[in-house]
Structures are given as structure tokens and as C-alpha cells.
Design goal:
By secondary structure, the chain is of the alpha/beta class. It is built from eleven helices and ten strands. The protein has helices at 9-15, 41-52, 68-74, 111-123, 132-140, 158-165, 171-185, 219-232, 237-259, 266-271, 273-281, and strands at 5-7, 30-34, 58-63, 79-82, 100-103, 128-130, 152-154, 187-191, 197-200, 203-207. Helix 2 crosses helix 8 (219-232). The mean pLDDT is 97.
């Protein structure tokens, strides 16, 4: 197996694009975050807020009806569209063309939700980040992998990765399977962990930021929002994945002196995004 290429600030500065002085929300990208189900609307709140705090000009969340008041109250900067169903997603319908889509956070695996995901994948031509239960839905319906747009970004934790790839017996075998999967379906795989690795075809990148404080509920939802935001801002998918993972980890590194490991929560990651971006400006 090849040695993963470690990603440091030097490499990140070659990717990072400062926002132009004459920019406005209409040219900073419009991200669509699709997810949520009864009891799991918080995941979409986290992902949507992370997206708008990562430089995206506009963010719209698509959720079941039960989350409407929650979203509008918690994140007034984010627009909201709702499904016809009260408790889970059954038909994904939106009246604009997003620059990027993030899907799966808190979405559940109801059969009607699976059908809605299938229809979206069939129709979609937009850059996409697929996370959480949308990954599990793909694992349940592997034939749908052929519907993915080139360079779609998948963000599994290890258990979700295992559902997609099958079991492995060693670290080398895990990476070999991931490389094979990436090449077969032309996708980018962000393997969340300590450290997080990004795989695209035969290239393996290793993130160098982050610590055990990120082992907390909602952390992955925040990462999905960050990467989707960067995609919407016209970053190349592999660069959006690398930069997103780096910034996400950096928030935990910056916050550590104030929060410690135990008291860091996913919302803290969003709160420290500004300081993470500022390290790239200096």
C-alpha cells in the first residue's frame, strides 16, 4: 500500500481561495442540505449552520414538516423547504438549482425515504456530499451506486464504510478496498477517524488536524455542512474534501484550550470555524 500523503497548512494554502472583496451572496454559492426525521432535526441544524459559517452565500434545508419551526427558529439565516410528510422525507422537491447538495444527515431509512433518495440520485447533476443514512441506503441498494455523479463525496465513519465495502482484516486491506471502490465508481471517500483519510482513485491523503474532542455527537453533520459549502463555492470536489476535513479538525485544535476534550461539542466546531479560516489568512 502506498504511504498516505499528509496534508499540512502548506498544502491547504495552495487550495484555499479567499473571498473576493467585491463578492456578494449571489456568487458565493447556494447549498442544499437534505435530511432530518422526527427527533433528528438537530443534525440538519448543525449541518446547515456549518455550511453558512463556511462562506456559502445561501443555504436551504430540505426537511420533513416536523422540523420547520425548529429550523426557522434556530438558524434564521437558512431558508427552509419541507416535505409533504410530517416525520420523514418522502419526496425531495425544490424549486431552484443548487450549486451543491449534502444529503443523509438524520434522514433515516424508511422505505419512502429510500425511494426519495433513489429518485434524487436518478435526476441529479449537481455536485453532492453523501453522509450518514444516505450511505446506509446506498449500502442496502448497491445498484444505485452507478447513479452517482463523478467525484461525488462520500463521508462514512468506519461502520458505514464497512457496510459499503465489506469487512477487512487489516488497515492495508481497508485502504485497498477503498481505493478499488473509489476507482470503480469514480467517487471521493472521506474515511472519518483518527486520523481522517481522503481517498480518490489511487491517491490517499491523511489529515493532520483534529483530536479526540471531535468524538462527539453531530461532529460528522458539521463536516458534511462544511464540505457541501465549499463545493457550492466552486472548489474542486477533492479540494473541498481536503480543505473541509482540515478546517473541521482545526476547530477542535483551536478550541481545546478553552473547552478541553470532554466539554467540546459539535456546535463548538461551528463556533470556531471563523478562527480556523483566519489561520489561513495570516
Amino acid at each position: 500500500m502506498q504511504i498516505p500523503k499528509k496534508i499540512f497548512k502548506t498544502e491547504i494554502l495552495e487550495i484555499y481561495k479567499p473571498i473576493p472583496a467585491n463578492s456578494h451572496k449571489g456568487i458565493q454559492g447556494h447549498a442544499l442540505i437534505i435530511g432530518g426525521s422526527y427527533g433528528k432535526i438537530g443534525s440538519v441544524c448543525l449541518s446547515s449552520k456549518a455550511a453558512i459559517k463556511s462562506g456559502c452565500g445561501l443555504v436551504t434545508a430540505f426537511i420533513p414538516k416536523c422540523g420547520y419551526t425548529i429550523m426557522q427558529t434556530v438558524i434564521p439565516e437558512v431558508m427552509v423547504l419541507t416535505d409533504v410528510n410530517e416525520n420523514f422525507v418522502t419526496k425531495i422537491d425544490f424549486n431552484f438549482i443548487p450549486n451543491a447538495i449534502g444529503i443523509g444527515i438524520g434522514i433515516g431509512q424508511e422505505m419512502e425515504t429510500q425511494n426519495a433518495v433513489h429518485q434524487l440520485l436518478f435526476d441529479n447533476k449537481t455536485p453532492m456530499v453523501i453522509d450518514a443514512d444516505a450511505l446506509n441506503i446506498l449500502a442496502l441498494n448497491p445498484a444505485w451506486l452507478s447513479l452517482l455523479q463523478p467525484k461525488t463525496i462520500l463521508t462514512p465513519h468506519l461502520k458505514e464504510l464497512e457496510r459499503l465495502l465489506g469487512k477487512w482484516n487489516s488497515k492495508d486491506e481497508k485502504f485497498a478496498k477503498a481505493v478499488e471502490f473509489s476507482k470503480k465508481f469514480n467517487v471521493i471517500i472521506v474515511i472519518k477517524g483518527a486520523p481522517t483519510h481522503i481517498i480518490f482513485e489511487e491517491k490517499i491523503y491523511q489529515n493532520t488536524t483534529g483530536n479526540q474532542a471531535l468524538a462527539t455527537a453531530g461532529s460528522g453533520d458539521v463536516l458534511t455542512g462544511i464540505i457541501t459549502s465549499l463545493l457550492a463555492q466552486s472548489y474542486e470536489p477533492i479540494n473541498a474534501a481536503i480543505l473541509g476535513v482540515y478546517l473541521h479538525g482545526l476547530t477542535a485544535d483551536i478550541a481545546l484550550l478553552e473547552t478541553g476534550y470532554q466539554s467540546f461539542i459539535a456546535s463548538d466546531s461551528i463556533n470556531y470555524l471563523g478562527k480556523a479560516f483566519l489561520t489561513l489568512e495570516n
